[in-house]
Predict the 3D structure of the following.
Amino acid sequence: MIGIHSTPHPQTSHDTLTVQGQFPTPANVNIHKKQSEWLDDSNTANIDTFFRNDSPEDRIIVFKNILPETDYPVNVYGVLIKPKNLNFYRPKIIDNRLEKIYKDLRLLVESEYDWEGYGLEKPKQSTKLKAESFISSFLNILDEANCVWVEPFIYSDEDGCICMGWYNGHKSLYIHIGSNSSTYRKKLTSVDDMQSEEGNLDDENCILIWKWLINDK
């Protein structure tokens, strides 16, 4: 259970945002609000903030590296509606391994497409959200199975699907995320032959195709 409340800071007129809970390890964070900025003092987390949909009433606050006890840095993202009242807060842990992937996905959707007139379809925002959800779930599945993680390269195809790919020697794995389906393709290439397999993604074959990729045999 995570609690949140707002109280006046004793030495300023700023509000103090206090977050307490299990993230999974105990963490207490105190953040002081000054006008539209979120500032940190000597004993608080580093803080980032930005507005979603250009609305100050729809603010995202990001607590950075508040869990030094964990094996890797963790961000806690909070969605704060009506920031003056601090009456709605939805915390979520974001793995730093996902940050670059989320950034690449965002750039993919925001980039200009079809500048040479080839009729390429631009990935939709809904496809990006689906890709974010997939890669987050995929990482959780691999972590639970104690699998090694390798960062993918990210691109899109001519149909507006978001694609993620990995190489390991003569093996390659491609995941295609479209608006209606998610599929995989794995390839095994040798001097004399090339074998390929395709299929729909589910939790079970996510593990199987990943173990196939990272196995050096």
